Amino acid sequence: MSLNPYDPCACGSGKKLKFCCLNIADEMDRIVRLSTGNQPHIALQQLEILARKFPANPWVGTTRAIILLEQGEASTARDVLRALVEHQPDHEFVIALLAAALFQADGFDAAKKAIHRAFQKSAKKYSSMVSGIAASMAMILMNRQQVMAAREHLGLALRLAPEKQRQDLFVQLLEFDGEEGIPYPMRGTHLLPSIQGTEEQQKEIKKAQKYAAVGCWSTAADLFLLLTRTLPESAELWHSAGLCRAWDGDEATAAEALHRAAQLYGDFAAAVECETLAQLFDRHTSKDVIDICTYEGQVESVGRLLTVLDAQPRLARVTLPPANPDQQHTPVAGYQILDRPQWTGDDFTQLTLDSLPRLQSHLSVYDANPDDNEPPTLFISGDRGAALEAARSLIETVSTGLMQWKTDKPQPEVTGGVPTESMTLRWSWSLPKGTPIRVSRKLRDQQWQTILNETWPAAPLKVLGGRSPSDAATDPKYKVALTAAVFMLDAHCQQQGHELNLDATLTRFGLTPLAPLDVDERTLLSGQSVMQMHRLPIERLTDAQLNAVVNRALLTRHDRFLYAVLKTALARPACEAELDLPRVHRALVELCSRHGRREEGLQWIDVARTKVPEDGKSFEHHWNWDINELTVRLEEPSDPGLQPLLDRFVNYYSPKVPQMRGYVERMLESVGVPSPWESINIVTAGNISAPTGGVWTPGASAAETAGNKLWLPGQ
Q1: Residue 524 has pLDDT above 90, yes or no
Q2: What is the CATH number of domain 1-106?
């Protein structure tokens, strides 16, 4: 026998093998050898025989279940473990393995109760296994867009993970907090509030908090809500229940509890944050939606169809992203279907919102997929309604004989939905190709001004009792709800790349900005939510605190707050010395460019150029910032500073890094600027005749060099 009788028994009892399962050790050793020797079926046969003799033995049952799971027989493994747990109700490994088997066999929702029991009973002894279950749950919750639940499960997985897996999970958590597609109030950490109560109530409060700490958020929420029977006016209890419901993925019930907390809080800022989260959950779980629908058609000839579609003035072909190797079947062409032909003028400054066509739907064309025996297909997707039907009618008319709708799908398939209240924040016009960035930004700003000054203030909102923000502004009882609605608006603007003047918007509706947090040099800032972080008195923070906030602000990327934090930090020499300056300066340039402050962005580039690294990589440093400057100047191709910059690329960088020419030319081509290399005259020792204007050298201005001539050393 190869097993040591004085080793801990593999059944998990904690006893030595000699005093536990010694009677089956030889057989189990042989079975394990069969399994690892690529004979799992024989091993399972032997285990079935042992299981009939020793039905309560966890070594036999768990080994059998593990082999079944490895063979893809999750349902059988589940049944084996269900029978075993009847004999071993408190066995930590059996509990964890049953949760994993149920998860694989029956899915997330059916396994949830067993998983929570594993969180509670098995996490300490089998932390790695429980961490893996939590991480898998996080992925499913993220796919369901239950983002706060996904983050909390990911955080639990990180806390339980072994050292070798912690780095990957930590990176995933950082990516989550930096995901700009998630409204910023829902990102980052949210701590349970402190709750006051009698000694007896405190016992139940701590019990609920312990359940929450180990990931049993549903049980914790139940306990918090039970306590509201004796403490019905405790905003903190309702707040805690709402957070736990959100972390459990029950967003509709979370919203109810958070609305209640907002009504009870005496702390106005806490009330607004609870109400903001509640409104976000309401929006996500709303049944009042506009369906996003898709019609599917079968194509006779992709080539002939594309020829016809390309000729249609109401179809604008779009550039498809590079093929994703993870996707087996990608479209061969995509179009915007417009309500009228695209604008075709030459002077883009004459573009107005009224002159732009509206987008009715999207059209995607797919070639045949031989792997799935699928013929060529097309899909038309858009919001349910007249615009989608008009687009469908157009495609049906122009593609007669080349396409027919799927007869088994006479009605469009519902593939998503947009909350009806969100429709006031959407627009669907289409820009012609080649529109300069400055023009598109101007049009977007005009659209935003219309939304923010006219459309949104007049739109009825359910949380305001069906009133519009303008009407509700006169009623004090809607103060918290309306303030939260403005923060909802701010979150949407941030996601769409628009910088809302939050304080001015609040003031417009008779509301006051949230009070700054009271902090001193001993205040720990790591546990604050993103909304709390935005209330920090930046100027009063210590250098260490400010640097910590800079790093977090760079991650969460709220433009208005990030801009203020970076400028404050750069004004302090002690802070600047600790910052990742290239990252900070790039962020400032991006923020300025994103919001139309080109000149300030160029000034930050000039500042960044002076911060040459001490590692001697000055060439790469200047190259990177010249590329940044090129990106900014190309937003305005008529910029007089563009030509001297292009001269520098041609005369200085090109000989040193020849391969960069194609990269720069692609940048120029995207905005219609001709390549400066096409007209250059190369100067060599063999053809130089007279110093007609001078030879360009690094640092020389364009005026000091005539004829775009370049001296190449050694020629």
Answers
A1: no
A2: 1.25.40.10
